[in-house]
Amino acid sequence: MIELIDVRKRYRRRQVLKGVSFTVRKGQITCLIGVNGSGKSTILKAIMRLVPIQEGQILIDGKGRSGADLYEKVAFIPDRLTMPPGMKLSDAIRFMQDYHRRWNEARSRELMAFFRLDASERIGNLSKGMAAKFNLVLGLAQETDYVLMDEPFAGIDMFSREQISKVFTSDLMEGRGVLLTTHEIGEMEPLLDRALFLRDGVIVRDIDCERLRDEMGKSVIDVMREVYAP
Amino acid sequence: MKKTVRELDSAVKRGGIMAGLGDFENVVFDPRVPVYLQVVRHFKELIATGRLRSGEVIPSRRELAAMLNINPNTAQRAYKEMEEQKLIVTEGNKESRITADEQVLQSVRSELIESEVEAFVRAVRKIDVPLEELIDLLQRKYEELAGGKDHD
Amino acid sequence: MKKITGWQAFVRLLNFEIRRFRWMLVGLMAITAVIQIGSLVTTLLTKLESRRQDRLSWNHGAQQDTEPQWTPFSFVDLVEQELLMEFTWPILIGVAVIGIYIFFIWYREWFGKDTFVYRLLMLPQPRFHIYLAKGCAIVLFTFSLVAFQIVLIPLERWLFHLIVPEEMRLPSDFSAAVRAHPAWEMLLPEAADQFVFSYGVGIISVMAAFTAILLERSFSGIGIVYGIGYAAVCAAAMLLPVGVLEMQNPDAWLYPGEILAVELTACAVVALVSLGFGYWLLNRKITV
Fold this sequence. Notes:
The structure holds three protein chains of three kinds.
Chain A: E1 2-11, E2 14-24, E3 29-33, H1 40-47, E4 55-60, E5 63-64, H2 67-73, E6 74-77, H3 89-99, H4 105-114, H5 128-140, E7 146-150, H6 158-168, E8 177-182, E9 194-199, E10 202-208, H7 209-216, H8 220-228
Parallel strand pairs in A: 3-8, 3-9, 6-7, 7-8
Antiparallel strand pairs in A: 1-2, 1-4, 4-5, 9-10
Chain B: H1 2-13, H2 35-48, E1 57-58, H3 61-68, H4 72-84, E2 88-90, E3 96-98, H5 102-125, H6 131-150
Antiparallel strand pairs in B: 1-3, 2-3
Helix pairs in contact in B: 2-4, 2-5, 3-4
Chain C: H1 6-59, E1 73-74, H2 75-82, H3 84-107, H4 117-121, H5 128-163, E2 169-170, H6 174-180, H7 182-187, H8 192-218, H9 223-244, H10 256-285
Parallel strand pairs in C: 1-2
């Protein structure tokens, strides 16, 4: 599991994370919820060592994260494509394949076919929906134990959204620990195992979704209203 | 839950005999009720309306999750619940089937009818109607809809 | 799962960087060749043409009574006297491009919306490979251009011999040719120790620049101050021994040998600190 223990981070003068603690377990889909700018992306980037943290610990399977190991255990799908626009999709896949041992070529082809992406297209020519889907290909074709996704549905058209949510229910996610961020739940609700609510730099609620429904008769959206009501 | 019954209703009106893919798609879930319980309820409705026959093979957990657009863990939980309620039988690692036990199937039907009737009575009691008039109306509506079915 | 050794991963990354600059390299080589050869040929042809004109006008009874004599000249003479500016331009352009590329090679990863730096930092290999690959790329780029210039010199001399008729030319050798142009002298010093020193200082400067860049990228806002500050400190450390202690001055406080030792130590310290600091920044402080 991925554990965050009292993580604190400052950006310029602002204290963005003020002691964030939570756990992401394998085989579960966990959703990190928060309003825009609350630090959700920062948390994902901090786990991936893309931004430094000032205090706190982040452990993967009980151990500190060391260089190469981290990136073979956790795949990150950022909120943007992070590939040069001049590159062709096939080149981008070659790049991933060249450096990542855990790249599953067959799976990448499956996903490309499922999303109906043309490998000879250039990255700069992709629409927002196609770019988001290709981003998923680059992340999910790696056989990692954990997958982090930053706003996978933001600004995506409805049909692409449906395609993307199909991935969550497929065997691609089998046994993996998934942490995704969003500021709107929408049709994702039935897919979530856990929901974490980030507010003012801390996790204020950490919820098992089915228990919430069972014991309180509430939906995740109801809790969102409670937590973020102005 | 009302939504799913309406859904089933139109599915029944459309005809068709065996439970097909259509029975497991476009199911809308109430986000305030545990999803796994709604899945179990959905199966009970399919059984009660005869769209799932005794002994019939049902989709695997994974297939079901994909069709219903739910978390595979939820599908897993639903199946476990149904096994505990003896609604389905799983032989080892192979496929799952609806139970062949007629008693169980009967009790499912009566359970569902009873809960629908209860919901109906609760709703209708707010409108102050004498019981005989209600029974009369029920009979008429029943015959009307049954007649409609014959014409298909 | 095939095993990719650390070394293999580094080489792939280096190859990746090299492929990214290949057109720039070819372009610079082309510019150098075109300008140097072009100016050589046009200058020679002009000279020969004007001599022919003189000959002609003498034949038809112009000013002088004696046949105009043309002192023969060598390739070296030509370069020294008439081609200094023309030959300098391509070298200046090359230096400028490399200078810019030292910074561009890092900052390009942060350009635009789809910042590639995410992918580089998430590669399952030691992050320092990125630093080393970019450093080696710069070094290879520089040496390729220098090597190209080395190849051009005899070629230009051969062209000279081709164009200029025998009675007008003098022979010259390669090392004389190199000494003909101050820029060439700097790029290709005869003494091996001077070579090592010049290029060594160059490489260490690249290391310092890289670390300054990483400083800037690790601290948003104030980073630029840190970066420039670090670069200034390194520059001072490397220039001070020679400048302040006055290596050239026979009355200086220390013996030349001692000054040299101080200079070398300073350079070594700058190199090691830059590498170590760069390593630490890349692993602990860098921010996308």
